[in-house]
Amino acid sequence: MSAGARRTKGRAGLVLYFSLALLFLVFESFHSPIPDTLRQIAADTVTPILNLVNEPIKATQDGIERLVGVSKISDQNTQLKKENEKLAHWEQAALQLLRENERLLAILKGSGKEVPTIATGRVVGVGGGAFENSVIVNVGKGNNVQRNWPVVNDLGLVGRIITVGQLSSRVLLLTDLNSRVPVRISRSGTLGILEGRNSNVMALNFLPAEADVRVGDRIITSGHGSMFPPDLPVGYVTAVSDLVIEVAPEAYLDRIDYIRVLACRFTQPEDLMPPQSNDEGERP
């Protein structure tokens, strides 16, 4: 087709388009239903084609959404793994607490028999004077409390009963100069005697020459000497030197509140009593 023929055909098409547009304007001005009918016919004709063209587009969009969903699922899985790790950590912590609780429950057991609590009381005063570490508790003979029975609180060993009245008793604290407690080092099992010094720390003595003692070692009752049940928490090593091994009490002896008296029916051995003229632990 020559260039002139193409130009002629183009002008004819343009004239046709303008004519149709003018015709539609006339129809619209007279509110003729013909334009709406033609539009609906055109829409009905084009809709199947649009549906056909839209299928691959929709499939592509669905694929993208699935990929996004997979990505979200992956993120959620990662988050769940982190939460599972946290739960595993807390599970281990719970198991550790359970084991500690079992050990604490075993504290009151000695020689295969449970050591019962004979009385639960409260500290109501401080006994003695400036050179004595003792407290007064509001349980006594009326509560079946007896002399030399161990006294504990929720943290560990506090001391032992040294005098008993009808309504109250005096407790010799671990830190008193007259206090002697057979103990062992929890880590190594080494035996020794814990002696009070009338201060906020005690001295660990009578250890074997080869004893391995470290700062932080836990000290518990050994059960030897038939004075205290075994495995009661007593304290922890705070200083180690050639002169002295210092042990701080596990219980806060300067602010004791509630206590328990254990019905430990032992007779105190003579070799654990400090050398003194008066009856051990008692003062006029």
What characteristics describe this protein?
alpha+beta, 2 helices, Thrombin, subunit H, 6-stranded antiparallel barrel, 284 residues, 2 domains
Name the CATH architecture of the largest domain: Beta Barrel
What is the succession of H and E elements? HHEEEEEEEEEEEEEE
Bin the strand percentage: 25-35%
The gyration radius over C-alpha positions equals: 46 Å
Structural class: alpha+beta
What are the low-pLDDT stretches, counting only 5+ consecutive residues below 50? 107-113, 267-284
Q: How would a textbook summarize the main sheet?
A: 6 strands, antiparallel, barrel
Describe this structure in words.
The radius of gyration is 46 Å and the shape is rod-shaped. It is an alpha+beta fold and 284 residues long. The strands form 3 sheets. Strands 3-4-7-6-5-14 form a 6-stranded antiparallel barrel. Strands 8-9-10-13-12-11 form a 6-stranded antiparallel barrel. Strands 1-2 form a two-stranded antiparallel ribbon. It is built from 2 helices and 14 strands. Residues 107-113 and 267-284 have low confidence and may be disordered. It has 2 domains: 33-114; 117-272, Rod shape-determining protein MreC, domain 1 (Thrombin, subunit H).
